[in-house]
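Sequence only, no structure available. Ideas?
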Amino acid sequence: AIMNGSANLLIYPLPEVTISGNNSICEGDTVVLTASGADTYLWMLNPPITANQIQIAPTETTTYTLWGSNSFGCEKDSDFTVEVLLSPTFTLFDDQLNQTILVNGAAIYPEYRFYSSGNLLSSSQFPSYFYGTTSLPSPTIIVEATNDLGRISTQ
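Reply:
I predicted one. Tokens follow.
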């Protein structure tokens, strides 16, 4: 038997789930991620969170997954990666023969600042400071290195 006729098919739209927030933070900082485009949200965290906004403090680069549902019960997911940029790491070497403080590190940073008793002695892109002809207010020299994001480490 052949049947004739028609049927109406109703197709509901998927939600347009988006995540906004800072996708690059420095080590130790927090970031707020905000969901939009759906009626309800589920962040796939441990434990899961049902909110449109979360505040997180990742210790390493992490991808976050969010599920959003609309009023029709349709669901869609979205991913958002937060890159965690590490603070500069370095060690110091006092080359007493050449009267120079040398900064040794895993990377070259765009700025180094050398201080003695709070007084700025030098600020430059070079990871060394010649103190031989300088009358230092203190025998201790403090060094700050700044990475590309402006994050500072001190020794």
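The two ends are 88 Å apart (CA to CA).
Hope that gets you unstuck.
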